[in-house]
Design a protein that fits this description.
This protein has 117 residues and is of the alpha+beta class. It has two helices and three strands.
Amino acid sequence: MSRALIALIAVCGLPLAVAQSAQILIKAKCTFSDGTLVGYQSFVVDASLSSDEKRAAAERACEPVMQEASATCDELANHVDALKSEWRVAPLHSIEERKLKAAIKHALAAAPAYCKS
């Protein structure tokens, strides 16, 4: 379930301070490469940076968010795979089979939205 990360600048910068060096607040939209939204990350950068530098800063700001999201989705996938393996060998129509099926449904329902796509 490894997905490439991509961060897009979602909102234009808002002026924070107009001192000697102007800085802007940027809200980065942290998404997987398929466009699935993970969250937003705000950070401050120098207003004089180019668009490419701001985009690179947004990617750096989203990196920890994306790593955590990937780890969460990978952990969920491993857990569900383990439950499915147990479910496949459980006696047909047994209480154990029903409990495992319910555990799989519960794990998938409790998963963050970005892991469900």
